[in-house]
Design goal:
The protein has about 280 residues and is of the alpha/beta class. The chain has 9 helices and 11 strands. Strands 2-1-3-6-5-10-9 form a 7-stranded mixed beta sheet. A two-stranded antiparallel sheet has the order 4-11. α2 runs antiparallel to α3, α7 crosses α8 and α7 runs parallel beside α9. The termini are far apart.
């Protein structure tokens, strides 16, 4: 059973704004018997963590520090993680019987920031955590800004070896996956809200230290969609991942501006089939 503990990360020692204070207050309102734990520089050993965390912290990229730390927390202690811009509108007790639960932020990506939980030592969380092994946030002075929804979703897809229907509850080994209506009723691209009777919380997408990550996720998605027209789903994923790894310092919107020229060159060389 998942313990009644809500964890959140707050690195950088910045002041919490009104929305964040409101969200934390909602946790206390709807889960009054839960322990709430803030993780920061005082109780998490940055320097004793992995290269990825140390490098992201050095660059003051708090969102990317949290991407790893939240997985480490839940794997080692169990409980539920919420970002500070997540407002609860219902109690979380119904999710405690799951070995782990995660949710989609849209029709494609699972996002741990909008809320997830697990028992201590959960295997799915361990796989997501291990994905950061041997990873560096900075390579040759350039930052790897791959967003955690991309990383985390790819881990789960690789474990299952198949696509997942994001529109329904999926019971997989060691975890349950919930559609976006449960924890992410706001569309992160249009900012339109669609509350349903199943909605547990609202992820407001307004914490300033998280904005960069969601912009990158959208740009990644746009770039992938463009390449998929030429290569197909599987090959496009491999191509975009390698291409992004090489040019990780560029914004995807800039890559999108260049992709037509790139594809024309590759078509001319016979690397890509032409799309009529």
């Amino acid at each position: 059973m998942i313990p009644k503990v809500i964890h959140y990360c707050w690195f950088g020692n910045n002041k919490k704004n009104k929305l964040m204070r409101k969200c934390i207050k909602s946790w206390k309102k709807y889960c009054p018997d839960y322990k709430i734990v803030e993780w920061n520089e005082k109780n998490f050993d940055i320097q004793g963590s992995c290269d990825y965390v140390r490098e992201a912290y050095r660059e003051q990229k708090w969102a990317f520090v949290s991407d790893y730390v939240r997985l480490w927390i839940i794997y080692n202690f169990g409980g539920i993680y919420l970002d500070t811009d997540v407002e609860l509108i219902k109690n979380l007790d119904n999710f405690l019987e799951n070995p782990a639960f995660l949710a989609y932020q849209d029709s494609k990506y699972i996002a741990t920031g909008l809320g997830f939980g697990a028992e201590k030592g959960n295997k799915i969380i361990k796989c997501m955590l291990d994905d950061y092994k041997n990873c560096h946030f900075c390579i040759n002075g350039e930052m790897d800004l791959t967003p955690c929804p991309v990383r985390n979703t790819n881990v789960i897809k690789n474990l299952l070896g198949t696509e997942i229907d994001a529109k329904k509850i999926s019971n997989i080994k060691d975890a349950v996956l919930y559609p976006k209506e449960y924890f992410s009723p706001i569309d992160c691209k249009t900012m339109e809200m669609a509350l349903t009777s199943n909605t547990i919380s609202i992820h407001w997408f307004t914490a300033s230290w998280r904005e960069e990550e969601f912009l990158i996720a959208k740009e990644y998605d746009d770039f992938y969609s463009e390449v998929r027209e030429h290569l197909g789903k599987r090959s496009a994923y491999i191509f975009v991942t390698i291409f992004y790894w090489i040019f990780r310092n560029k914004e995807f919107k800039k890559l999108n501006d260049e992709v037509d020229t790139l594809i024309e060159v590759m078509e001319a060389k016979g690397v890509l089939p032409k799309v009529e």
